[in-house]
Amino acid sequence: MRTTLRDVARLAGVSPKTVSNVVNGYLHVRAETRVRVEEAIVTLNYRPNLSARNLRRGRTGVIALAVPELDVPYFAELARHLVAAADAHGWTVLVDQTDGVRERERQVIGGIRDQLIDGLVLSPLALTAADLAERTDATPMVLLGERIHHGPADHVLIDNVAAAREATAHLLELGRTRVAAIGAQRSAAGVTARMRLRGYRAALAAGGVGYDERLVASTPHFHRADGAAAMAELLDSGARPDAVFCFSDLLALGALRTLAERGLRVPDDVAVIGFDDIEDGRFSVPTLSTISPDKRRIAGCAVDLLHRQLLTGAAGHADADGGPQEVYADYRLIARESTGASVPPVPSLPAGFSASVSVSSAPSVSSVSPVPPTAP
Amino acid sequence: MRTTLRDVARLAGVSPKTVSNVVNGYLHVRAETRVRVEEAIVTLNYRPNLSARNLRRGRTGVIALAVPELDVPYFAELARHLVAAADAHGWTVLVDQTDGVRERERQVIGGIRDQLIDGLVLSPLALTAADLAERTDATPMVLLGERIHHGPADHVLIDNVAAAREATAHLLELGRTRVAAIGAQRSAAGVTARMRLRGYRAALAAGGVGYDERLVASTPHFHRADGAAAMAELLDSGARPDAVFCFSDLLALGALRTLAERGLRVPDDVAVIGFDDIEDGRFSVPTLSTISPDKRRIAGCAVDLLHRQLLTGAAGHADADGGPQEVYADYRLIARESTGASVPPVPSLPAGFSASVSVSSAPSVSSVSPVPPTAP
DNA sequence: TTGAAAGCGCTAACAC
DNA sequence: GTGTTAGCGCTTTCAA
């Protein structure tokens, strides 16, 4: 049998309450008593039962992170930062994988694991505003990404329209005129894709370049295989792109692959830019230009928002501030070889240090701005 | 206040026990009663308190996965499979990130979260056999990888020596004579690296090729940056390799990057093979030959072993079978462009389907063999 | 500064 | 089939 607090109390000759005080760092315990208790704890190798503590305290010290796929590098990197941020608050992270399936996402917000978790960070893909409105579970929740923009929940996101506009503008500045886009999505789930498409079109308009539907490729997902297939389609269609803005780095890596197979040079024949700044793009051949969202910040904000919700007792949003929070995280454009930036020496730096050249950074986007910096 | 089982019982006009029976799917409940209870549950939006249930049952339905880094693709892919396998057993996965730091790994096996988890799957990097021997926590545990080969715990691993031998032999079969190795490690943590080096040397010996120390590059980690730096070193050293066996795919991707920068052709000038079969290698330029461990199987076995330990009540191993289990998972060699395999058409298949050509598979390695297939 | 008693919400025994 | 009783291990009143 496992040793309990009572066992310790018995051995130390004190009451359970005193042991509890010692364990929880309560200050007003006589030094002598404290030592006796601590010795007993060591002797018996006592460790508190967290289930019991949770039951009593009504909190568990665990938060859940729900993402579509753990092995998509963007989510993996995000998860890493979230685990670190949660750690700082004394939280452990429990991971849910939704596969982007609406029903699973509904279950997650419905409280499948409520009372086992203090909070939830969800990166939704298929969830609708209605699903969210139906939610009755009171567990604090933070949504990641643009999916349900003005829904009744705290959000952490980046300005996808502005970022996409910048990426596209970067290609136009190279003098390219037939700029393609890969990653458009018509499904209800494609909110992020639609924002990026809007930014793409805005940049074209600003650059005085006409919008050509044939240069826009839709993809079911944002994976490498989708990017490779879409690039092949674009090339076969006779649309003759001389640059491509891919809505994710994975799409871009797939596109690079197809271009290499077709014997096209990057960036000479076709310039390529992605979105996400995953580690792969720093070592691909050629290295990949991209939009780099501040993932550390996104994770940090999500955890902070959760924390605030717990303090104010609000569910899904911080009422004290008059409604759900929308926090905008920074991003920046990173130009690498795929858009003609010079070859940096191979970095022997630890991962996380970018050896690339930052050509431009977001126009003073406040990370806590309550309104999107993009004009409506 | 949250609704409790008592509230439901009151509304349905039954005892708490009956509600409990319904919730837990106990069979011998009158249909009429069951319906009444279920209605009450819906009306009150009742959801059981897991902390209370856990306290009572002594189990939590949660297992922990501890890996060095969540954003290393191999671990991310493994995590994905583990979440899926755990799901099938009704378990939720809680993720710990150790950063490969020994102290954190010790904490993990020491039971930081015991009584919050039913079991632990650990992929150790720095843990020693002594650390393991000191362990007093009784939580079921399964170790992944080769770190503490004959330690007192269940293991799931692959035959690293044989796999490395095959990878190296594959390079020799191409007619290469100056086959380099990247990823050697002298530190205590480098057990996996040492097994792979052994396989490399064995293949050289079998192929009648002399061992040349100058062709072996050590790296602190198995990351892209390490591979890139090591490849640069090898090229600068005048060792003139015409092939490289990298101990991980990330190392190999880094090496490919350096080779591209130096204007060397792969595989013409230098053939490259990696280890892990991460998704990146299926789309890199060129695509990467590799050793592919059966990750789904590894995850599945780990969960099964945990399950068995829970049933037998053993801690860290299945006593019923006379000691800790060592389960060997399959692997196979996948030849792609980096060792001269023909270019497959770009797959438009969903991720997870390899479009590559399997040139050879492991020599009938049983996945449940209790002894390593490699000769001692 | 410490102790005694109560109870968090649930389920395992055992009664009926 | 269903109810009663007890208690999982902890923290939280409230007294002493």
Automatic annotation (TrEMBL), chains A, B:
PROSITE patterns: HTH_LACI_1 (PS00356), HTH_LACI_2 (PS50932). Residues 3-57 form the HTH lacI-type domain. The keyword Membrane does not apply. GO terms for molecular function: DNA-binding transcription factor activity; transcription cis-regulatory region binding. Residues 354-376 are annotated as: Disordered. The lineage of its organism: Bacteria, Bacillati, Actinomycetota, Actinomycetes, Propionibacteriales. It comes from the Bacteria. The keyword Transcription regulation applies. This is DNA-binding LacI/PurR family transcriptional regulator. Keywords: DNA-binding, Transcription, Transcription regulation. Residues 354-369 have a biased composition (Low complexity). Signal peptide: none annotated. It comes from Actinopolymorpha cephalotaxi. InterPro entries: HTH_LacI, LacI/GalR-like_sensor, Lambda_DNA-bd_dom_sf, Peripla_BP_I.
